[in-house]
Amino acid sequence: MPAWRYPFVWAAAGMILGILLAEISGKGALLIWGGIVGGSAYAWFRLQWGRLVWSLPLFAFLGWVRAWVEKLPPPNALSTFTGHLVRLSGYVIEEPFRTKRAYRLLLRVDSVYLYRLRQLFPTEGRLLLYVRDSSVMTIPVGTRIYASCRLDSIRFGADYWARQKVFVSAFSEEVEKGKIEPLYLFGYFQRLRQAIIAKMESTSPLSGAPLAVAQALLLGYKRGIEPEVRETFQLSGAAHILAVSGMHVGLVLSVWLFLLSKLPAGWGRHWVSQSLLLVVVVMYGFLTGASPSAMRAVIMGSVAIAARMLQQLYLPLNALGFAAFLQSAAEPNVIYELGFQLSYAAVGGIMAFYEPIRTFLLRRSKKESLFFSYLKDITAVSLAAQGGTLFLSWAYFGRFPIYFLLANLIAVPLATALAFSAVAWVGLMYVPGVAEIVGYPPYAFAWLLVKSVQLISALPGGSLSLPAIPPYLGVFLTLITIVAVGVWLHHRLKEAKTPWLI
Fold it and tell me: What is the fold of 78-183?
């Protein structure tokens, strides 16, 4: 892979490698660093690779520094007040969540009043605040909160919350609500999402699983989905539909490109309209909660729009590397999240296996109708994505969905129809007398989607139990499969020597 053609793939690989090396110390780290530098030197001097081969150790060093800086606690960290009785001030950065015994608020705290010293201290940190008052569930994101409590360390799920930079929890009998924090920009998108969700619930024909699935598919809001429904999507191999990703960002692009095509000649591709499209895509990513999979799709979509504006060639692999580089540089811990790994594995699998699989299907079929072409596309994409995520699913879930192809052949068209009708629903839900009517089609498609997935997951032998493997082995096997097998397949496809590819 020439570094000059895919520079951001090398940059992302180096950045992620450096972040991983930050977890290793001692002789093992020195040996790995020696191998990276020695390998780059060998490729430069002996193999006559370009000087950009040094980008790998360079970005690995930058990734190591970035991870090291990320671990440094701020001098006024909130965790230094653990064990003390304080009155804190902070604002809500996540929608309130109901647990078994209390209601949970995730706060970003900026000051604490220490009762023992009778002094106010500026601080920095995130806090899990538990309250028994159910009225906190109506608090909008970005609302400033004041509460008296004793700070404590996190007892349950400490490793998970540490990845989210949350090290302190507290319980308070009551909280005092303040004003909206105007400088918390992400709060504007979260409050808009809460308003849309509330309007969907008030104008939906019925409640239940179909409505929750529609909210997840369109806005990335999955809290309303029952665990049983979520499990059916996982067992059937259609769980990716519930995660905002390339399909959803592609939907937004399709809608806006259609609208732009209706503009007078020239304006559809004008830099003003394309810049507006770029803003819309980025705003949609934040509206859906800015999950790793959503932001990966947003960054790649933004690169495609920029290439279209500048009339440059769009290289999906380089765009994928650019997205991975930006996300890992902005938040090093994101590489450990399952959503990040599955998203990149699925896209990597599609890039590696889609073309060979579709070539095979085209060679083995004489049907050229639009329906059969669409069927081949879905089959090729489903097989390619499943091939990319196979070992990750094995490591994290320990099961393989047998009927994943059947599930995707049915679920993807239904999800597409649901998404388009849900966009129309959201666009017209504030029109009096129309909102209740336009809510019927998306609810019907969501109901069919849920029922189809439930039926497929209930088929005999729906999933295969696999022996447990550690996550790091799943990641390693995923990389080997996508890179090695993908390169081999594309090489054979190019030479057209493999019989089943001819």
Answer: OB fold (Dihydrolipoamide Acetyltransferase, E2P) (2.40.50)
